[in-house]
């Protein structure tokens, strides 16, 4: 595919960085006032939505109309749903134990430490992971097979994530399940349906730009980084360290796939 607007894309990179930074700095100020840094998790989804909206505005006169709308809708729907879900889940709770433990070891000013290690880092990750979204606004030509395949994969991921989150929330609302391990519905197919959903969403958004090999090569880093975060970083690996030792978790782990969905009862140690 020819006609990718590399120059305009370069300008967009700066605008998207500004959007991600603005969301994170605004969230940091709110967190300082509230004394709770867990709200940065809400800003994660909002940051991607902000990048999409800013990129749509910046790309006026470039790219292809349908593809620009598609990139905006897919990214904003995913980001806003995630932000609302996390906001509701955390309402009325105190600090997230992850941030509590991290800030307890902070040298010097805890606020500045959180700004560097949490907010600015997450802002940089939003910018990096959103590269395929930003690039989609500057592709020439109508959406083709790659774009619709990516949309289909995005739909699988968004559905998996939303259903998994809803099933877990419903499970936790039942007092009879207090202290029990969620092993029903999608959680019987994979120990992390929400993380697997994220994985599909971002590989799907990457596929949208694969019609242009050069753009695909430049933006491949984005889904790779997201996959590493979900599987090896702050997603699956961190959560499972936290879950170790809980009654029933060893059995659940032995009979349930660690990431990619498999039929219930399949023994997986991943």
Automatic annotation (TrEMBL):
TM regions (residue ranges): 6-32, 39-59, 65-84, 118-140, 201-231
Keyword list, A-Z: Membrane, Transmembrane, Transmembrane helix
A Pfam entry, by short name: DUF1295
PROSITE patterns reported for this sequence: S5A_REDUCTASE
Protein name as annotated: DUF1295 domain-containing protein
Native organism: Streptomyces atroolivaceus
